[in-house]
Amino acid sequence: MILGLIVTVQCVYSDITVDYFNRADTANASAAQVPSVIGANWNSDTASTWKISGNKLEIVSTTGAGTIYNTGLTTLNSGGTNQFTVTGLTMLDTTSSSASIGLVVNYKTSTKTGVVFRYSGIGDVWFLRPNGTAFLSVPSAFTPVQNRPYRLTVSSTNANQYACEIFDTVTETVVFATTAVNSGASNSSDGYGGFCGTSGLCDFDEFRLKNSVGTRHIDADQKALNGIAGNIYSDTTGAVYNQFQVVTWKQGTVTNPVSWAVGDFTGYYPAGTKTLYQAANSNATYGKSALQIKASTFGVFINSWACPPLPAGGNNIYASYITYRISSPYLYAWKSSSYGASATLVWNFDSSVDTLSATGSALPYTLCCNYMVDTSISKACWLSWRFFDPRGDYIFVGENIGWDAMTATPTVRTMPGGTRYSTTMGYSSSYKTNVYTNWEPFGFSVSRNQIVNIANDLNAYLATTTNTYRYSTNPDDWRIQSVNVAMEMACPNGESDERNCGMKVRNIYLHNK
What we know:
Elements: E1 10-13, E2 16-19, E3 29-30, H1 34-37, E4 42-43, E5 48-53, E6 56-62, E7 66-74, E8 84-92, E9 100-108, E10 113-120, E11 125-128, E12 134-138, E13 150-158, E14 161-168, E15 173-182, E16 192-197, E17 202-211, E18 215-219, E19 232-234, E20 244-249, E21 256-257, H2 263-266, E22 278-280, E23 290-294, E24 297-303, E25 317-325, H3 336-339, E26 344-356, E27 363-374, E28 379-388, E29 400-404, E30 409-414, E31 423-424, E32 436-447, H4 448-462, E33 478-490, E34 500-512
Parallel strand pairs: 19-20, 28-30
Antiparallel strand pairs: 1-2, 2-17, 3-5, 4-7, 5-6, 6-17, 7-16, 8-13, 8-17, 9-10, 9-16, 10-11, 11-12, 13-14, 14-15, 18-34, 20-25, 21-22, 22-23, 23-24, 24-34, 25-33, 26-32, 26-34, 27-28, 27-33, 29-30, 31-32
Protein backbone atom coordinates (compact mmCIF):
# COMPACT_ATOMS: atom_id res chain seq x y z
CA MET A 1 0.00 0.00 0.00
CA ILE A 2 1.17 3.52 -0.78
CA LEU A 3 -1.66 5.78 0.37
CA GLY A 4 -0.09 6.51 3.71
CA LEU A 5 -2.09 9.63 4.18
CA ILE A 6 -5.15 8.58 3.53
CA VAL A 7 -23.49 -21.17 1.97
CA THR A 8 -25.96 -18.71 0.55
CA VAL A 9 -24.84 -15.39 -0.55
CA GLN A 10 -27.12 -13.39 1.68
CA CYS A 11 -26.58 -11.39 4.82
CA VAL A 12 -28.09 -9.55 7.66
CA TYR A 13 -26.10 -7.14 9.77
CA SER A 14 -27.43 -4.29 11.81
CA ASP A 15 -28.93 -2.06 9.16
CA ILE A 16 -28.46 -3.87 5.85
CA THR A 17 -29.47 -7.14 4.24
CA VAL A 18 -28.27 -8.27 0.81
CA ASP A 19 -28.96 -11.16 -1.57
CA TYR A 20 -27.64 -11.35 -5.14
CA PHE A 21 -28.71 -14.99 -5.60
CA ASN A 22 -25.21 -16.00 -6.77
CA ARG A 23 -25.59 -19.66 -6.00
CA ALA A 24 -26.48 -22.94 -7.63
CA ASP A 25 -29.73 -23.37 -9.49
CA THR A 26 -32.51 -24.80 -7.34
CA ALA A 27 -35.55 -26.98 -7.83
CA ASN A 28 -38.97 -25.34 -7.90
CA ALA A 29 -40.05 -24.28 -4.42
CA SER A 30 -43.62 -23.90 -3.24
CA ALA A 31 -44.35 -21.12 -0.77
CA ALA A 32 -43.83 -23.52 2.12
CA GLN A 33 -40.48 -24.65 0.68
CA VAL A 34 -39.09 -21.16 0.02
CA PRO A 35 -37.01 -20.87 3.26
CA SER A 36 -35.27 -24.21 2.72
CA VAL A 37 -34.76 -23.87 -1.04
CA ILE A 38 -34.39 -20.16 -1.84
CA GLY A 39 -32.75 -19.02 1.41
CA ALA A 40 -33.30 -19.07 5.16
CA ASN A 41 -34.58 -15.49 5.37
CA TRP A 42 -36.92 -15.74 2.40
CA ASN A 43 -40.62 -16.53 2.84
CA SER A 44 -43.79 -16.48 0.76
CA ASP A 45 -47.43 -16.53 1.82
CA THR A 46 -48.90 -16.62 -1.68
CA ALA A 47 -49.95 -19.43 -4.01
CA SER A 48 -46.72 -19.20 -5.98
CA THR A 49 -43.69 -21.28 -6.98
CA TRP A 50 -40.12 -19.92 -7.05
CA LYS A 51 -36.65 -21.01 -8.08
CA ILE A 52 -33.11 -19.72 -8.53
CA SER A 53 -31.79 -20.08 -12.06
CA GLY A 54 -28.76 -18.46 -13.66
CA ASN A 55 -28.01 -16.47 -10.49
CA LYS A 56 -31.47 -14.88 -10.54
CA LEU A 57 -34.69 -15.42 -8.63
CA GLU A 58 -37.67 -16.44 -10.77
CA ILE A 59 -41.39 -16.90 -10.33
CA VAL A 60 -42.19 -20.26 -11.90
CA SER A 61 -45.95 -19.86 -11.49
CA THR A 62 -48.39 -17.91 -9.39
CA THR A 63 -52.11 -17.61 -8.80
CA GLY A 64 -52.72 -13.91 -8.53
CA ALA A 65 -49.84 -11.73 -7.40
CA GLY A 66 -46.90 -13.71 -6.05
CA THR A 67 -44.96 -12.15 -3.19
CA ILE A 68 -41.66 -13.18 -1.61
CA TYR A 69 -40.18 -11.27 1.32
CA ASN A 70 -36.97 -11.27 3.33
CA THR A 71 -37.27 -11.46 7.12
CA GLY A 72 -33.65 -10.58 7.77
CA LEU A 73 -34.41 -6.91 8.36
CA THR A 74 -37.48 -4.76 8.78
CA THR A 75 -38.50 -1.78 6.66
CA LEU A 76 -38.53 0.77 9.48
CA ASN A 77 -40.93 3.60 8.70
CA SER A 78 -42.13 5.23 11.91
CA GLY A 79 -40.76 8.69 11.16
CA GLY A 80 -37.76 10.59 12.43
CA THR A 81 -34.60 8.54 11.91
CA ASN A 82 -36.48 5.26 11.43
CA GLN A 83 -36.31 5.05 7.65
CA PHE A 84 -35.34 2.50 4.99
CA THR A 85 -34.33 2.03 1.34
CA VAL A 86 -35.16 -1.11 -0.63
CA THR A 87 -33.68 -1.74 -4.07
CA GLY A 88 -33.85 -4.66 -6.45
CA LEU A 89 -33.46 -5.59 -10.11
CA THR A 90 -36.65 -6.59 -11.93
CA MET A 91 -36.97 -8.17 -15.38
CA LEU A 92 -40.43 -8.57 -16.96
CA ASP A 93 -40.37 -10.79 -20.04
CA THR A 94 -43.63 -9.56 -21.61
CA THR A 95 -45.23 -6.41 -22.94
CA SER A 96 -48.67 -7.40 -21.66
CA SER A 97 -50.64 -4.74 -19.80
CA SER A 98 -51.98 -7.40 -17.43
CA ALA A 99 -48.52 -8.49 -16.21
CA SER A 100 -46.63 -6.50 -13.58
CA ILE A 101 -43.48 -6.74 -11.45
CA GLY A 102 -42.03 -4.79 -8.54
CA LEU A 103 -41.00 -4.41 -4.91
CA VAL A 104 -42.99 -4.96 -1.75
CA VAL A 105 -42.25 -3.02 1.46
CA ASN A 106 -43.75 -2.94 4.95
CA TYR A 107 -45.02 -6.48 4.40
CA LYS A 108 -46.74 -7.81 7.53
CA THR A 109 -47.05 -11.53 8.13
CA SER A 110 -50.02 -11.04 10.46
CA THR A 111 -52.20 -9.62 7.69
CA LYS A 112 -50.20 -10.93 4.71
CA THR A 113 -50.25 -7.47 3.19
CA GLY A 114 -47.72 -4.80 2.34
CA VAL A 115 -47.22 -1.82 0.06
CA VAL A 116 -46.27 -2.57 -3.56
CA PHE A 117 -44.34 -0.45 -6.09
CA ARG A 118 -44.68 -2.05 -9.50
CA TYR A 119 -44.90 -1.45 -13.24
CA SER A 120 -46.69 -3.29 -16.05
CA GLY A 121 -45.54 -4.55 -19.43
CA ILE A 122 -46.73 -1.31 -21.03
CA GLY A 123 -45.22 0.95 -18.37
CA ASP A 124 -48.17 1.69 -16.10
CA VAL A 125 -46.80 2.44 -12.61
CA TRP A 126 -48.54 1.95 -9.29
CA PHE A 127 -47.81 2.33 -5.60
CA LEU A 128 -50.56 0.38 -3.90
CA ARG A 129 -51.75 -2.19 -1.41
CA PRO A 130 -52.12 -5.77 -2.68
CA ASN A 131 -55.90 -5.41 -2.32
CA GLY A 132 -55.75 -2.79 -5.07
CA THR A 133 -55.95 0.44 -3.07
CA ALA A 134 -53.71 2.78 -5.09
CA PHE A 135 -51.79 5.62 -3.48
CA LEU A 136 -50.19 6.38 -6.86
CA SER A 137 -51.30 5.42 -10.36
CA VAL A 138 -49.55 6.72 -13.49
CA PRO A 139 -50.67 5.21 -16.82
CA SER A 140 -47.92 4.72 -19.43
CA ALA A 141 -45.31 6.35 -17.18
CA PHE A 142 -42.51 4.97 -19.36
CA THR A 143 -41.98 2.46 -22.17
CA PRO A 144 -40.33 -0.65 -20.76
CA VAL A 145 -38.08 -2.83 -22.89
CA GLN A 146 -39.03 -6.48 -22.59
CA ASN A 147 -36.80 -8.40 -20.15
CA ARG A 148 -34.51 -5.40 -19.53
CA PRO A 149 -33.18 -5.10 -15.95
CA TYR A 150 -34.75 -2.11 -14.22
CA ARG A 151 -33.58 -1.21 -10.73
CA LEU A 152 -36.52 -0.25 -8.54
CA THR A 153 -36.04 1.76 -5.35
CA VAL A 154 -38.44 2.62 -2.56
CA SER A 155 -37.16 4.92 0.18
CA SER A 156 -39.12 6.10 3.16
CA THR A 157 -38.57 9.81 3.74
CA ASN A 158 -40.81 10.22 6.79
CA ALA A 159 -43.68 8.44 8.47
CA ASN A 160 -46.14 7.51 5.68
CA GLN A 161 -43.97 9.22 3.04
CA TYR A 162 -42.03 7.48 0.26
CA ALA A 163 -39.82 8.26 -2.72
CA CYS A 164 -39.95 5.79 -5.62
CA GLU A 165 -37.68 5.38 -8.64
CA ILE A 166 -37.27 3.16 -11.70
CA PHE A 167 -33.73 3.15 -13.15
CA ASP A 168 -32.88 1.72 -16.56
CA THR A 169 -29.60 -0.16 -16.01
CA VAL A 170 -28.78 -0.24 -19.73
CA THR A 171 -29.17 3.47 -20.53
CA GLU A 172 -28.28 4.38 -16.91
CA THR A 173 -31.16 6.82 -16.74
CA VAL A 174 -34.08 7.32 -14.37
CA VAL A 175 -37.25 6.55 -16.34
CA PHE A 176 -39.69 7.24 -13.51
CA ALA A 177 -39.42 9.01 -10.15
CA THR A 178 -41.65 10.51 -7.54
CA THR A 179 -40.69 11.94 -4.17
CA ALA A 180 -43.87 12.38 -2.17
CA VAL A 181 -46.14 9.34 -2.06
CA ASN A 182 -48.32 9.07 1.05
CA SER A 183 -49.45 5.58 1.99
CA GLY A 184 -51.57 6.49 4.99
CA ALA A 185 -50.77 5.84 8.64
CA SER A 186 -52.19 2.32 8.66
CA ASN A 187 -49.64 1.23 6.06
CA SER A 188 -46.47 2.85 7.37
CA SER A 189 -45.59 0.64 10.31
CA ASP A 190 -42.60 -1.66 10.17
CA GLY A 191 -42.64 -4.77 8.02
CA TYR A 192 -40.45 -6.65 5.54
CA GLY A 193 -39.16 -6.00 2.04
CA GLY A 194 -39.12 -8.22 -1.02
CA PHE A 195 -40.36 -8.79 -4.57
CA CYS A 196 -43.72 -9.31 -6.24
CA GLY A 197 -44.94 -10.36 -9.69
CA THR A 198 -48.09 -11.49 -11.41
CA SER A 199 -46.79 -14.17 -13.78
CA GLY A 200 -44.08 -16.71 -14.49
CA LEU A 201 -42.38 -14.13 -16.71
CA CYS A 202 -40.80 -12.28 -13.79
CA ASP A 203 -37.11 -12.46 -12.79
CA PHE A 204 -35.42 -10.68 -9.87
CA ASP A 205 -31.88 -9.97 -8.69
CA GLU A 206 -29.69 -7.83 -6.42
CA PHE A 207 -32.02 -7.37 -3.47
CA ARG A 208 -30.74 -4.83 -0.95
CA LEU A 209 -32.41 -3.29 2.08
CA LYS A 210 -30.86 -0.61 4.29
CA ASN A 211 -32.52 0.87 7.34
CA SER A 212 -31.29 3.48 9.77
CA VAL A 213 -30.51 1.44 12.89
CA GLY A 214 -26.74 1.89 12.52
CA THR A 215 -24.66 5.02 11.93
CA ARG A 216 -23.69 5.60 8.31
CA HIS A 217 -20.25 7.09 7.70
CA ILE A 218 -19.53 6.57 3.99
CA ASP A 219 -22.20 5.71 1.43
CA ALA A 220 -21.16 5.80 -2.23
CA ASP A 221 -24.81 6.11 -3.27
CA GLN A 222 -24.88 9.49 -1.52
CA LYS A 223 -21.40 10.55 -2.73
CA ALA A 224 -21.85 10.02 -6.47
CA LEU A 225 -19.23 11.49 -8.82
CA ASN A 226 -20.03 13.16 -12.14
CA GLY A 227 -17.24 11.45 -14.08
CA ILE A 228 -13.47 11.44 -14.40
CA ALA A 229 -12.90 15.21 -14.44
CA GLY A 230 -11.09 16.29 -11.28
CA ASN A 231 -11.48 12.88 -9.65
CA ILE A 232 -8.26 11.07 -10.72
CA TYR A 233 -4.81 11.63 -9.18
CA SER A 234 -1.54 9.95 -10.15
CA ASP A 235 1.38 9.09 -7.85
CA THR A 236 -0.04 11.03 -4.92
CA THR A 237 -2.21 10.41 -1.90
CA GLY A 238 -5.10 12.32 -3.42
CA ALA A 239 -6.19 15.91 -3.18
CA VAL A 240 -9.51 16.05 -1.36
CA TYR A 241 -11.16 14.82 1.80
CA ASN A 242 -14.63 13.42 2.42
CA GLN A 243 -15.12 12.59 -1.24
CA PHE A 244 -14.39 9.57 -3.39
CA GLN A 245 -11.49 9.78 -5.84
CA VAL A 246 -9.24 7.33 -7.69
CA VAL A 247 -5.49 7.37 -7.12
CA THR A 248 -3.08 5.53 -9.42
CA TRP A 249 0.50 4.51 -8.70
CA LYS A 250 3.41 4.12 -11.18
CA GLN A 251 1.10 3.80 -14.23
CA GLY A 252 1.86 7.16 -15.80
CA THR A 253 -0.79 9.87 -15.89
CA VAL A 254 -4.10 8.01 -16.16
CA THR A 255 -6.25 11.05 -16.94
CA ASN A 256 -6.51 11.03 -20.74
CA PRO A 257 -10.22 10.71 -21.74
CA VAL A 258 -10.83 7.68 -24.00
CA SER A 259 -13.80 6.27 -25.86
CA TRP A 260 -12.62 2.70 -26.45
CA ALA A 261 -14.36 -0.16 -24.65
CA VAL A 262 -12.65 -0.25 -21.26
CA GLY A 263 -15.55 -2.51 -20.26
CA ASP A 264 -13.96 -5.30 -22.29
CA PHE A 265 -11.55 -5.56 -19.34
CA THR A 266 -13.59 -4.29 -16.36
CA GLY A 267 -17.02 -5.63 -17.28
CA TYR A 268 -18.56 -2.16 -16.95
CA TYR A 269 -19.82 -0.26 -19.99
CA PRO A 270 -21.01 3.19 -18.92
CA ALA A 271 -23.83 4.60 -21.02
CA GLY A 272 -23.52 8.04 -22.57
CA THR A 273 -20.43 9.90 -23.73
CA LYS A 274 -17.59 7.55 -22.85
CA THR A 275 -14.94 10.27 -22.65
CA LEU A 276 -16.75 11.78 -19.67
CA TYR A 277 -16.40 8.58 -17.67
CA GLN A 278 -13.23 6.83 -18.90
CA ALA A 279 -9.53 7.73 -18.82
CA ALA A 280 -6.30 5.95 -19.74
CA ASN A 281 -2.61 6.64 -19.35
CA SER A 282 -0.78 8.82 -21.86
CA ASN A 283 -1.03 6.24 -24.63
CA ALA A 284 -4.77 6.01 -25.25
CA THR A 285 -4.60 2.92 -27.47
CA TYR A 286 -7.12 0.13 -26.78
CA GLY A 287 -6.03 -2.06 -23.88
CA LYS A 288 -3.85 0.41 -21.98
CA SER A 289 -4.22 0.94 -18.23
CA ALA A 290 -7.51 2.74 -17.66
CA LEU A 291 -10.11 3.90 -15.14
CA GLN A 292 -13.87 4.40 -15.18
CA ILE A 293 -15.92 6.63 -12.87
CA LYS A 294 -19.66 7.16 -13.17
CA ALA A 295 -21.90 8.00 -10.22
CA SER A 296 -20.98 5.37 -7.59
CA THR A 297 -19.54 2.73 -9.98
CA PHE A 298 -15.82 2.42 -10.69
CA GLY A 299 -13.79 0.40 -13.18
CA VAL A 300 -10.06 -0.32 -12.79
CA PHE A 301 -7.80 -1.91 -15.41
CA ILE A 302 -4.04 -2.29 -14.98
CA ASN A 303 -1.96 -3.45 -17.93
CA SER A 304 1.64 -3.56 -16.80
CA TRP A 305 2.85 -4.09 -20.38
CA ALA A 306 1.62 -0.54 -21.10
CA CYS A 307 2.95 1.13 -17.93
CA PRO A 308 6.31 2.80 -17.36
CA PRO A 309 8.86 0.09 -16.48
CA LEU A 310 9.70 -0.59 -12.87
CA PRO A 311 13.21 -1.45 -11.65
CA ALA A 312 13.72 -4.77 -9.92
CA GLY A 313 13.06 -4.74 -6.20
CA GLY A 314 10.71 -6.23 -3.66
CA ASN A 315 8.52 -3.13 -3.22
CA ASN A 316 7.61 -2.38 -6.82
CA ILE A 317 3.88 -2.26 -7.52
CA TYR A 318 1.41 -0.73 -9.91
CA ALA A 319 -1.84 0.17 -8.19
CA SER A 320 -5.22 1.87 -8.47
CA TYR A 321 -7.07 2.91 -5.33
CA ILE A 322 -10.71 3.91 -5.05
CA THR A 323 -10.19 6.00 -1.97
CA TYR A 324 -12.10 8.06 0.55
CA ARG A 325 -9.98 10.18 2.92
CA ILE A 326 -11.67 11.22 6.14
CA SER A 327 -11.04 14.56 7.83
CA SER A 328 -12.88 16.45 10.54
CA PRO A 329 -15.01 15.17 12.06
CA TYR A 330 -12.60 12.29 12.41
CA LEU A 331 -14.02 8.78 12.58
CA TYR A 332 -13.34 7.21 15.97
CA ALA A 333 -15.32 4.16 14.97
CA TRP A 334 -14.68 2.16 18.16
CA LYS A 335 -15.26 4.94 20.70
CA SER A 336 -17.53 3.57 23.40
CA SER A 337 -19.05 6.95 24.27
CA SER A 338 -20.18 7.34 20.65
CA TYR A 339 -21.08 3.81 19.56
CA GLY A 340 -21.36 1.75 22.74
CA ALA A 341 -19.33 -0.86 24.55
CA SER A 342 -19.76 -3.31 21.65
CA ALA A 343 -18.96 -0.81 18.88
CA THR A 344 -18.29 -2.56 15.57
CA LEU A 345 -17.38 -1.03 12.21
CA VAL A 346 -18.70 -2.68 9.05
CA TRP A 347 -17.36 -2.40 5.49
CA ASN A 348 -19.55 -3.31 2.52
CA PHE A 349 -18.93 -3.16 -1.26
CA ASP A 350 -19.69 -5.02 -4.48
CA SER A 351 -16.99 -6.15 -6.88
CA SER A 352 -16.11 -8.39 -9.79
CA VAL A 353 -12.77 -9.29 -11.36
CA ASP A 354 -13.60 -9.68 -15.03
CA THR A 355 -10.24 -10.22 -16.72
CA LEU A 356 -6.88 -11.72 -15.82
CA SER A 357 -4.30 -12.45 -18.50
CA ALA A 358 -3.31 -16.10 -18.65
CA THR A 359 0.36 -15.29 -19.07
CA GLY A 360 2.75 -13.02 -17.24
CA SER A 361 4.71 -13.15 -14.01
CA ALA A 362 3.33 -10.02 -12.30
CA LEU A 363 1.18 -10.66 -9.23
CA PRO A 364 -2.24 -8.90 -9.26
CA TYR A 365 -4.61 -8.95 -6.27
CA THR A 366 -7.51 -6.91 -4.90
CA LEU A 367 -8.08 -5.74 -1.36
CA CYS A 368 -9.90 -3.35 0.93
CA CYS A 369 -7.07 -1.51 2.68
CA ASN A 370 -7.66 0.99 5.43
CA TYR A 371 -5.28 3.44 7.06
CA MET A 372 -5.89 3.42 10.82
CA VAL A 373 -4.30 5.73 13.38
CA ASP A 374 -3.66 5.18 17.08
CA THR A 375 -4.12 8.78 18.18
CA SER A 376 -2.53 8.21 21.60
CA ILE A 377 0.90 7.90 19.95
CA SER A 378 0.13 9.31 16.46
CA LYS A 379 1.20 6.07 14.80
CA ALA A 380 -0.63 4.34 11.98
CA CYS A 381 -1.07 0.86 10.56
CA TRP A 382 -2.74 -0.67 7.55
CA LEU A 383 -5.72 -2.98 7.90
CA SER A 384 -5.73 -5.04 4.70
CA TRP A 385 -8.65 -7.34 3.80
CA ARG A 386 -7.61 -9.15 0.62
CA PHE A 387 -10.46 -10.76 -1.31
CA PHE A 388 -8.91 -11.85 -4.64
CA ASP A 389 -5.50 -13.35 -5.40
CA PRO A 390 -4.90 -15.97 -8.13
CA ARG A 391 -2.12 -17.46 -5.99
CA GLY A 392 -4.63 -18.40 -3.31
CA ASP A 393 -3.61 -17.87 0.31
CA TYR A 394 -0.08 -17.15 -0.84
CA ILE A 395 0.74 -14.02 1.09
CA PHE A 396 -1.38 -14.22 4.20
CA VAL A 397 -1.21 -17.87 5.24
CA GLY A 398 -4.16 -16.97 7.40
CA GLU A 399 -4.11 -13.71 9.36
CA ASN A 400 -0.83 -12.13 10.36
CA ILE A 401 1.18 -8.95 10.89
CA GLY A 402 3.66 -7.70 8.32
CA TRP A 403 5.49 -4.56 7.27
CA ASP A 404 4.75 -2.27 4.34
CA ALA A 405 8.19 -1.05 3.35
CA MET A 406 6.90 1.62 0.97
CA THR A 407 5.15 3.52 3.78
CA ALA A 408 7.27 2.19 6.67
CA THR A 409 4.04 1.13 8.36
CA PRO A 410 2.94 -2.18 9.92
CA THR A 411 0.22 -4.08 8.05
CA VAL A 412 -2.54 -6.13 9.65
CA ARG A 413 -3.49 -8.80 7.13
CA THR A 414 -6.87 -10.46 7.14
CA MET A 415 -9.24 -11.92 4.58
CA PRO A 416 -12.66 -13.57 4.09
CA GLY A 417 -12.90 -16.28 6.70
CA GLY A 418 -10.67 -14.45 9.16
CA THR A 419 -11.69 -14.24 12.81
CA ARG A 420 -8.91 -12.67 14.85
CA TYR A 421 -8.74 -9.27 13.14
CA SER A 422 -12.05 -9.23 11.26
CA THR A 423 -15.35 -11.05 10.92
CA THR A 424 -16.69 -11.87 7.47
CA MET A 425 -20.33 -10.90 7.11
CA GLY A 426 -22.80 -13.69 6.47
CA TYR A 427 -23.67 -12.46 2.99
CA SER A 428 -20.08 -11.96 1.86
CA SER A 429 -18.58 -13.83 -1.03
CA SER A 430 -15.60 -15.98 -0.22
CA TYR A 431 -11.92 -15.48 -1.01
CA LYS A 432 -11.51 -15.55 -4.81
CA THR A 433 -8.69 -17.12 -6.81
CA ASN A 434 -10.27 -16.96 -10.28
CA VAL A 435 -12.09 -14.28 -12.24
CA TYR A 436 -15.75 -13.80 -11.31
CA THR A 437 -17.85 -11.70 -13.68
CA ASN A 438 -21.09 -11.39 -11.72
CA TRP A 439 -21.38 -8.62 -9.15
CA GLU A 440 -20.52 -10.18 -5.79
CA PRO A 441 -21.19 -8.56 -2.41
CA PHE A 442 -18.31 -8.43 0.06
CA GLY A 443 -18.37 -7.35 3.67
CA PHE A 444 -16.51 -7.62 6.94
CA SER A 445 -16.53 -6.03 10.38
CA VAL A 446 -14.01 -5.15 13.07
CA SER A 447 -15.12 -5.04 16.71
CA ARG A 448 -13.57 -3.40 19.76
CA ASN A 449 -12.25 -6.81 20.85
CA GLN A 450 -10.60 -7.27 17.46
CA ILE A 451 -8.94 -3.85 17.80
CA VAL A 452 -7.42 -5.15 21.05
CA ASN A 453 -6.20 -8.25 19.17
CA ILE A 454 -4.71 -6.01 16.48
CA ALA A 455 -2.90 -3.84 19.03
CA ASN A 456 -1.53 -6.81 20.99
CA ASP A 457 -0.25 -8.56 17.87
CA LEU A 458 1.23 -5.36 16.46
CA ASN A 459 3.11 -4.86 19.73
CA ALA A 460 4.36 -8.43 19.70
CA TYR A 461 5.59 -7.90 16.15
CA LEU A 462 7.27 -4.57 17.02
CA ALA A 463 9.07 -6.25 19.91
CA THR A 464 11.01 -8.27 17.32
CA THR A 465 12.17 -5.08 15.57
CA THR A 466 14.14 -1.98 16.56
CA ASN A 467 10.96 0.09 16.83
CA THR A 468 10.31 1.23 20.40
CA TYR A 469 6.73 2.52 20.12
CA ARG A 470 3.73 0.40 21.11
CA TYR A 471 0.07 0.65 20.14
CA SER A 472 -2.77 1.38 22.54
CA THR A 473 -5.04 -1.50 23.53
CA ASN A 474 -7.85 0.98 24.22
CA PRO A 475 -10.15 0.97 21.14
CA ASP A 476 -11.28 4.51 22.01
CA ASP A 477 -7.87 5.77 20.80
CA TRP A 478 -8.21 4.41 17.27
CA ARG A 479 -9.65 6.16 14.21
CA ILE A 480 -9.99 5.46 10.48
CA GLN A 481 -8.17 7.93 8.24
CA SER A 482 -8.75 6.48 4.78
CA VAL A 483 -10.81 3.69 3.19
CA ASN A 484 -9.64 2.13 -0.08
CA VAL A 485 -10.89 -0.60 -2.39
CA ALA A 486 -7.90 -1.32 -4.57
CA MET A 487 -6.10 -3.38 -7.14
CA GLU A 488 -2.35 -3.79 -6.73
CA MET A 489 0.02 -5.57 -9.09
CA ALA A 490 3.36 -6.57 -7.61
CA CYS A 491 6.37 -6.75 -9.93
CA PRO A 492 9.28 -7.92 -7.76
CA ASN A 493 11.44 -8.56 -10.82
CA GLY A 494 10.74 -5.14 -12.27
CA GLU A 495 10.24 -4.71 -16.01
CA SER A 496 10.30 -8.44 -16.71
CA ASP A 497 7.09 -8.96 -14.66
CA GLU A 498 4.06 -8.30 -16.87
CA ARG A 499 0.30 -8.98 -16.69
CA ASN A 500 -3.11 -7.33 -16.94
CA CYS A 501 -6.18 -7.47 -14.71
CA GLY A 502 -9.51 -5.61 -14.57
CA MET A 503 -12.24 -5.17 -11.97
CA LYS A 504 -15.31 -3.08 -11.21
CA VAL A 505 -16.55 -1.82 -7.81
CA ARG A 506 -19.74 -0.19 -6.52
CA ASN A 507 -21.88 0.30 -3.39
CA ILE A 508 -19.02 1.16 -1.03
CA TYR A 509 -20.67 1.54 2.35
CA LEU A 510 -19.13 2.00 5.81
CA HIS A 511 -21.16 2.11 9.00
CA ASN A 512 -21.21 1.33 12.71
CA LYS A 513 -23.60 -1.20 14.06
